[in-house]
């Protein structure tokens, strides 16, 4: 029997028809969240919704949408802004790219930037417009470890994920005083369909680099419960991330000064 109300509220999950998004839907339903599931593949969404309703007795609404289409994005934004039952947004929908930028189909790159950056930003803004006044809500943005090592992967995809990390850090500073939680999740290589869709061969990578989507999401949810701003599921020692943060903090006082550093002064000026 469906539960019409839950103290946890409703979680909206994008890219929910497969992979990481489908696992988030499963795990959040297990926790007692009602669900709004967003993806293009309506048949897959309906099958997932039927299973989750039966297994966990939660409300599951299917919202078919192409999140590269402005009208569909606007419809999801409006739902986020108007539905006060929504307490959690998992901004998961995304696509990857393969190969060198100069050799890429630039229209495909444009579509990736639209989904990974523009749509994610619009949905985050719409969610926070409701969360912040209510002083309650969780925004989860799925980034990637390539945000930290862009030279090791496709340039344009890495750049989109660096944007997601930066946006999440800024939004945390904006929204956390009101009681709203922001989390950026940085998975490593995760076993999902994104690899096939981008033309990359997952089988070519060492097995020890590849994490199952279930294990990744379970780790990310533990990080969410611990109120981590940045969760890197495969990182053994959290002190390594903290050290990077400390190094960044050390840079901050010297990133904007009235004079150039001495090493950039013309040679005559140093005599």
UniProtKB/TrEMBL annotation:
Source domain of life: Bacteria
Subcellular location: Endoplasmic reticulum
Oxidoreductase among keywords: yes
Entry-linked InterPro entries: NAD(P)-bd_dom_sf, Sc_DH/Rdtase_CS, SDR_fam, VLCFA-Steroid_DH
Keyword Nucleus: no
Annotated keywords: Oxidoreductase
Annotated SUPFAM superfamilies: NAD(P)-binding Rossmann-fold domains
Pfam families, sorted: adh_short (PF00106)
Membrane spanning residue stretches: none
Family statement: Belongs to the short-chain dehydrogenases/reductases (SDR) family.
Name of the molecule in the record: Short-subunit dehydrogenase
Organism annotation: Rhodoferax ferrireducens
Phylogenetic placement of the source organism: Bacteria, Pseudomonadati, Pseudomonadota, Betaproteobacteria, Burkholderiales
